[in-house]
Design a protein that fits this description.
- The protein is globular, with a radius of gyration of 20 Å.
- With 245 residues, it is α+β, with helices and mostly antiparallel strands.
- The chain has a six-stranded antiparallel beta sheet with strand order 4-5-6-9-8-7.
- Helices cover 29% and strands 32% of the residues.
- It has two domains: 10-73, Winged helix-like DNA-binding domain superfamily/Winged helix DNA-binding domain (Arc Repressor Mutant, subunit A, Orthogonal Bundle); 78-236, 3-Layer(aba) Sandwich (Chorismate lyase), CATH 3.40.1410.
- The protein has helices at 10-23, 36-43, 47-59, 78-85, 112-118, 157-162, 167-175, 193-199, and strands at residues 63-66, 70-73, 88-90, 99-109, 125-135, 138-148, 179-190, 206-216, 221-229, 234-236.
- Helix 1 packs across helix 3.
Length: 245
């Protein structure tokens, strides 16, 4: 393949080129990739090399194979959110999609941590979203989400309340932003008065705090999320699979 970097495995170069094509919008979420032979010819590599690159992207949930149909650009769904981004299960290991209630939506200015996470200027315009997540009717998680206004122009309270799917589906369909991975930091904290009231616990009760930054294809940060989770009856599990219901 012309222009491949010295010392870099060829399939990784092909993977990079596939990612460049996704970033450029060559294939939109939900659409099929061209046939393997077409892509192999495009990148001037053997089909085996192409397949290895595609395999990596399938493992990363960027592409999805459908038996008998081909390979498609992954779309966001409740199941994908539940098993890739939401890691809270009950004590029996039961995973479910949480019921999400919007508590607040407002505009603001980025504080230091938000600005650093989103790679925007301190004081830059942001949206702030506050959600309460419940499982089997019990409040479990308070999410405080920060988005740069420039990435989500025109986002409204109505869009958030009436969205038919997940928040990440809304990002993808309304703003052409596809979240492909997240980075998280966890620590134990005591419940402040607001979290205690919303989660039905005493102030100071132990909670799990999760700081998450969500990234898109180009590894650009698009969401900063601060969550506090009541783990009295729930666990945080990172190896969830769709068969763990």
């Amino acid at each position: 393949m012309a222009g491949s970097a010295p010392g870099v495995p060829l399939y990784r170069e092909v993977k990079r080129l596939l990612m460049d094509a996704l970033i450029a919008g060559d294939w939109r979420p939900g659409t099929a990739l061209p046939a393997e032979r077409v892509l192999a010819d495009r990148f001037e590599v053997a089909i085996g090399t192409l397949r290895k690159a595609v395999d990596d992207l399938v493992q990363e949930n960027i592409l999805v194979r459908q038996q008998g149909r081909g390979t498609f650009v992954a779309t966001h769904s409740r199941e994908r959110y539940q098993f890739q981004f939401f890691h809270v299960v009950d004590r029996g290991g039961h995973a479910e999609y949480p019921h999400v209630r919007l508590l607040d939506f407002r505009k603001g200015r980025a504080e230091d941590e938000e600005a650093a996470a989103l790679r925007i200027a301190r004081g830059g315009p942001v949206f702030r979203i506050k959600n309460l997540l419940a499982m089997r009717g019990a409040p479990v998680d308070v999410d405080r989400i920060t988005l740069a206004q420039q990435r989500f122009p025109g986002l409204t309270d109505r869009q958030l309340r009436e969205r038919p799917g997940t928040l990440y589906q809304l990002y993808q369909t309304a703003f052409a932003i596809t979240v492909v991975r997240s980075a998280e930091r966890l620590r134990a904290v005591g419940a402040d008065e607001d979290a205690a009231r919303l989660l039905g616990v005493d102030p100071g009760s132990p909670l799990l705090e999760i700081r998450r930054v969500a990234f898109t294809y180009a590894d650009d940060p698009v969401e900063f999320r601060l969550s506090v989770v009541n783990t009295a009856d729930h666990d945080y599990v990172t190896d969830l699979r769709p068969d763990r219901r």
